[in-house]
Amino acid sequence: MTGTGPMRIIIANRNARIASIILLLVFVAASVGGIYDPADQSAAGDWWPVVIFVAVPLILAGRSVTVGVVVVGDTVISGGWLRTRKISRADISAVRAVNYSGILNWSGASTQFLMVELEVAGSHVEILALVGRPAKVRRLADQLRDALGLEPNPAEPGAHRIQG
């Protein structure tokens, strides 16, 4: 007899996952090409370049598979590049698509990219794992809102734009 646990709903930007994995693996290949010297087989090189330029990107490429949001029972798990956050489903009162304001955007809030933001017990929690073009992020926010059983938000940034 197999037991079934709570249903898992996964919300992720698949294109961003694939692009990040490809980019990191290309970086690893270029790093290996720069570190490895096939002409000099006798020299024992330092290991720190291998750790920094090969192992770390490989770990991040593996972590790319888990980047996103998973709704399991009464828990919402936000998996990012460097940390995982668990939030009680009951504490989430709203899901919004907002202008991206992460580390890749030094000048403030971007109008070209959006990210998902949760309202959790009166504070705002940015979900940087769900970032992308406006139409895609709005779809992801709608999926998460539906998974949580929340009402649609009346207005979100950029909703007035013509979708192409």
Helix content: 25-40%
Mean pLDDT: 83
CA-CA gap between termini: 49 Å
Written as H for each helix and E for each strand, in order along the chain, the element string is: EHHEEEEEEH
- Structural class, by secondary structure, is alpha+beta
Counted by DSSP, the helix tally is 3
In short:
The protein is of the alpha+beta class.
Protein topology:
Layout: E1 8-11, H1 14-35, H2 48-63, E2 68-72, E3 75-79, E4 84-88, E5 92-99, E6 114-120, E7 123-132, H3 134-148
Antiparallel strand pairs: 1-2, 2-3, 3-4, 5-6, 6-7
Helix pairs in contact: 1-2
How would you describe the overall organization of this protein?
This protein is an alpha+beta fold and 164 residues long. Helix content is 32%, strand content 27%. The protein contains 3 helices and 7 strands. It has helices at residues 14-35, 48-63, 134-148, and strands at 8-11, 68-72, 75-79, 84-88, 92-99, 114-120, 123-132. The strands form 2 sheets. The chain has a 4-stranded antiparallel beta sheet with strand order 1-2-3-4, covered by helices on one side. A 3-stranded antiparallel beta sheet has the order 5-6-7, with helices on one face. Helix 1 (14-35) packs antiparallel against helix 2. It is elongated and about 65 Å long.
Keywords:
164 residues, 3-stranded antiparallel sheet, alpha+beta, 4-stranded antiparallel sheet, elongated, disordered C terminus
